[in-house]
Amino acid sequence: MARLNEIVKAYDIRGKAPEQWDETAAAALGAAFISVTGQSRLVVARDMRETGVGLSAAFIRAAAEAGAEVIDAGLCSTDEIYFISGKYDVAGAMFTASHNPADYNGIKLCLPGAKPMSLDTGLADIRDAAQAILDGRPAPRVDVPGTVTSVDYLAEYADYLHQLVDLSAIRPLSVVVDAGNGMAGHTVPAVLGERIPAKIIPLYFELDGTFPNHEANPLEPSNLVDLQEEVRRTGADIGLAFDGDADRCFVVDERGEPVSPSAITALVAEAELAKHPGSKVIHNLITSRAVAEIITEAGGEPVRSRVGHSFIKADMADTGAVFGGEHSAHYYFRDFWFADTGMLAAMHVLAALGGTDRPLSELVARYDRYQASGEINSTVADQASVIDAVEEHYRDQPDVETDRMDGLTVSFSDGSWFNLRPSNTEPLLRLNAEATTSERMSQLRDEVLDHIRR
After folding, report:
1. Of 31, 139, 260, 266, which cross-links 367 as Cys (Cβ 3.0–4.6 Å)?
2. What mean pLDDT, rounded, does the chain reach?
3. Distance between CA 200 and CA 218 in Å, rounded?
4. 245 and 160, same structural domain?
5. Residue 410 is part of which domain span?
6. What are the required cofactors (predicted)?
7. Residue 373 — very low, low, confident or very high, per pLDDT cuts 50/70/90?
């Protein structure tokens, strides 16, 4: 029997299927979602993973038996279900394990208006109610069950994105897209395809949840190699890589070099601020300091956030920010119900590139003002004591500022800084460092690592 406390995480449901959860568990979760939230309408979709067909069908059946009107949207990207939830003001359940390996599956749940759910906002209650059903309590049913209808929203989703970013007048571009056998293979032809003056060169567009070519996790450099080689081979203007459920997008330039998500955050922030002058823009605390500088220069107000989509989504809603960007390549838009969409971010990049004769490497060069270490993980048994020791070392030095918004951030008068924060799930400390020169960055990075690992 499934033990749901093993797979219900802080912000979603994710585990090995069927080892950790199966269709019986999915049905319990479907019934529990309706009984706990009281929602009468629900849209359900899935990505290309093989187990998603049976899991989503069981969830849909149980939700309908509990009285809900269920819309089966079939194959979708995660941001497409946010679109449906936002536009039609219905709750949503997306069956996906995002970038995780093939033997995983999960559910991302949202309330009407694409409002995210977490353990603190109903997910824990759903977990407990579903576990009670699995332990023998009868599932909630009504005398007259709800209905199930199938609707394809892909064309509406594409039309809405094109209302937000006009790509009709860009110069002809050559664009390599690596879908990683994930849902971008479904959405990119509809959104970009023949609707823009660009040649799309597809890599791994076949939907295949076994990921026969590489994992659909572009955060790992090894999963970008094929895209980089194809960009160089074809002489393309840009390369785009999506994760499994296509809510994140990574960019490589015409040389096949990765473009920092911080640079993409700054570029998109400028575009959104041009439409909404003076607005707030969220950036998490490990994005480059250049992001806050560029937001200010563009007339916006930068707002610093903790790392993690739950924090940035909450800050987006609390502040009414027009846009938010994370260094993990999640991009959030007020015009998209404060939800994240890699496709809309990609369209902004194509609009900027297609509006100039310069190559992408030159276009983004002005956003790369600092040298960054990238995220470096160290295995540490007692994370808190190590962070305390590092803070004690730097705290009383002249011209040094420290804060504890998320782990420990130490900032120096020469513009360099580092952040050290613990993993929530593993005995790891994550280090990010940045400086104006590569020499200073390397010196700072090695100095902090020496304190961590001694």
Report:
1. 266
2. 96
3. 19
4. yes
5. 371-453
6. Mg(2+)
7. very high
Are both 11 and 107 inside the same structural domain? Answer: yes
Contact 79, 340 (CB under 8 A): yes
Respond yes or no on whether the N-terminal peptide bond of residue 140 is cis (omega within 30° of 0): no
**Euclidean distance between CA atoms 405 and 400, whole angstroms:** 16
Same domain assignment for residues 35 and 130? yes
Looking at 224, 256, 288, which one is the last position of a domain?
256
Tokens of 431: 């280090």
Do 145 and 26 reside in the same domain of the chain?
Answer: yes
Q: Using CB atoms within 10 A of its CB, is residue 392 exposed (0-12), middle (13-18) or buried (19+)?
A: exposed
147 plus 243 within the same structural domain = no
CA atoms of 241 and 227, how far apart (whole Å):
7
pLDDT at 424: 74
Domain check: are 321 and 380 in the same one?
A: no
Active site residues: 98
Instruction: Supply the CATH number for residue 188's domain.
Output: 3.40.120.10
Q: Confirm whether pTM is higher than 0.70.
A: yes
Q: What is the CA radius of gyration of the chain?
A: 22
Give the DSSP per-residue string, 193-243.
Answer: TTTSSEEEEEES-S--TT-SSS-S-TTSGGGGHHHHHHHHHHT-SEEEEE-
Closest to 379 measured CA to CA, from 409, 444, 423: 423
- Count of structural domains, the chain: 4
User: 265 to each of 37, 249, 260, 323, 380, how far by Cα in Å?
Assistant: 34, 12, 9, 9, 31
442 Cβ contact list (under 8 Å, min separation 6): none
378 and 421 co-located in one domain:
yes
Q: Report pLDDT for 426.
A: 81
For residue 38, give every residue at least 6 positions away whose Cβ sits within 8 Å of its Cβ, in sequence order, or none: none
**Structure token pair of residue 311:** 């924090």
pLDDT in tens, 320-356: 999 999 988 999 999 999 999 999 999 999 999 999 9
Residue 13 near residue 94, CB atoms below 8 Å? no
Kindly state the tokens that stand for 52: 């998603």
Identify the band that residue 141 occupies on the pLDDT scale cut at 50, 70 and 90. Answer: confident
Nearest to 247 by CA among 398, 76, 369, 36: 76
Residue-wise pLDDT for 229-284, tens only, equals 999 999 999 999 999 999 999 999 999 999 999 999 999 999 999 999 999 999 99
